[in-house]
Design goal:
With 404 residues, the protein is an alpha/beta fold. It folds into two domains: 4-28 and 296-403, Aspartate Aminotransferase, domain 1 (Alpha-Beta Complex), CATH 3.90.1150.10; 40-293, Aspartate Aminotransferase, domain 2, CATH 3.40.640. It has 14 helices and 17 strands. The chain has helices at residues 4-9, 36-48, 59-79, 93-108, 127-136, 153-159, 182-191, 211-214, 239-242, 279-295, 297-315, 343-352, 365-371, 387-403, and strands at residues 17-18, 21-22, 24-25, 87-90, 114-118, 139-143, 164-170, 196-199, 218-222, 233-237, 255-258, 263-265, 321-324, 333-338, 355-356, 358-360, 376-380. A seven-stranded mixed β-sheet has the order 4-10-9-8-7-5-6, sandwiched between helices. A four-stranded antiparallel β-sheet has the order 13-14-17-16, covered by helices on one side. The protein has a two-stranded antiparallel ribbon with strand order 1-2. Strand 11 (255-258) and strand 12 (263-265) form a beta hairpin. Helix 3 (59-79) packs across helix 10 (279-295). The structure holds 4'-deoxy-4'-aminopyridoxal-5'-phosphate (PMP).
């Protein structure tokens, strides 16, 4: 384990007061706070290194390129991918999935084909596939789940067939916290020669992910949810797949030769990285990954699991408490409603106590429909949260409940 008080000092924002109360930040599923080392890496690069990458012969350009490419290696190691050719820098999970839906869809999806997603997907793992289906005349099919928020694997097995072109599934649900059995999902898809995209936006910050172990074909995550800046993310893709896919955007960096008659494309990963990349953010992402690796992903996982268990236990004692997402294998996300109190009222009143939670449909409207509700209140934990903060949340909910 690590020293939580010492760790909290790495995050200056945690010392803030909100309405004269200590900030209790429990909106980590939306975005995490940044440690000093990440912000300082960005400041240092802008002050001391800044130059455009890849094309420059001069010293600064080469130094910036080295930092950018070293960051790609840090991401590779973090994911245990085989090669840096498999690591594409994007703006985040959303862009990663749009890139894949476009490129994969252009080549491999045709009229009458089917794409499988799950009931608990974030809109960013639904809408790009839906748009593709509309372009190509393909069909989106949905893996159902039970009331606890566990995917129905038997239904999944019966949905996958010779028309299925790709399976797209969240590693961890941003609403329910369910940790999906991704290895099993991949194995079943591969038995049908179907590739799998895992949306890792909510798994990468919380526990060790291993591309070679999961054996998925594609994996997306966002930097800002794992203590890195906004505007940087990753699409991992197996080299044999990425080689077959056409570029997503055209422009500088992604080409080998250009003439008005014909353009040839750059090698991996650059074929998918048109234009000036966010090389400052990629460097800061590497700092964030180094930071969590130094704390130890297993330690982070143990700390957050303990917090989640404690929170579920304490919150479960509140009268009228309803949890959404009670799978055995659950991560550090708790969605709930209390009695008839509207989620927005609960969130607004908790805010007045300095407690930041998220309310609403959490970009998962189809899941809300499945649950028969409009929205939930969501508390989501990070490596710096404490049991005292859980106590503050519980006391806050009780106070709001009394008001109604
Ligand atoms: N997928 C999941 C499961 C998420 O939780 C989120 C962010 N809430 C996204 C995708 C989209 O991530 P981003 O907005 O960083 O692209």
């Amino acid at each position: 384990m690590y020293d939580i008080e010492k760790v909290r000092e790495d995050f200056p924002i945690l010392a803030r007061q909100i309405y004269n109360r200590p900030l209790v930040y429990l909106d980590n599923g939306a975005t995490t706070q940044k440690p000093r080392c990440v912000v300082e890496a960005m400041v240092d690069e802008y002050y001391n290194v800044n130059a455009n990458v890849h094309r420059g012969v001069h010293f600064l350009s080469q130094q910036a390129t080295d930092l950018h490419e070293a960051s790609r290696e840090t991401v590779r190691a973090f994911l245990n991918a085989k090669s840096t050719s498999e690591i594409l820098f994007t703006r985040g999970t959303t862009e990663s999935i749009n890139l894949l839906a476009f490129s994969f869809g252009e080549t491999f999806v045709h009229e009458g084909d089917e794409i499988l997603v799950s009931t608990m997907e974030h809109h960013s793992n639904i809408v790009p596939w839906q748009m593709l289906c509309e372009r190509k005349g393909a069909k989106l099919r949905v893996i159902p789940m039970d009331d606890a928020g566990v995917l129905d694997m038997e239904a999944y097995k019966s949905l996958i067939n010779e028309k299925t072109r790709i399976v797209c599934c969240a590693h961890v649900s941003n609403v329910l916290g369910t940790v999906n059995p991704v290895k099993e999902i991949v194995k079943i898809a591969h038995d049908h020669d179907v590739p799998v995209l895992i949306d890792g936006a909510q798994s990468t910050p919380h526990f060790k992910v291993d591309m070679q172990d999961i054996d998925c074909d594609f994996f997306a995550f966002s930097g800002h949810k794992i203590y890195a800046p906004t505007g940087i993310g990753v699409l991992y893709g197996k080299e044999q797949w990425l080689e077959k896919l056409p570029p997503y955007q055209g422009g500088g960096e992604m080409i080998k030769n250009v003439s008005f008659e014909k353009t040839t494309y750059n090698e991996l990963p650059y074929k998918f990285e048109a234009g000036t990349p966010d090389y400052v953010a990629s460097h800061a992402l590497a700092q964030a990954l180094d930071y969590v690796s130094a704390l130890g992903m297993d330690n982070i996982y143990a700390h957050e699991q303990e917090l989640t268990r404690y929170a579920m236990e304490q919150m479960g004692q509140i009268e009228g408490m309803r949890f959404f997402g009670t799978a055995d294998h659950k991560d550090a996300v708790i969605s709930f409603l209390v009695g008839n109190i509207h989620h927005l009222d609960m969130g607004t009143l908790l805010d007045r106590l300095g407690i930041a939670v998220r309310t609403g449909h959490h970009c998962a409207e189809p899941l809300m429909r499945r649950l028969g509700i409009e929205g939930t209140v969501r508390a989501s934990f990070a490596l710096y949260n404490t049991k005292a903060e859980v106590d503050a949340l519980v006391a806050g909910i009780q106070r709001v409940a009394k008001m109604f």
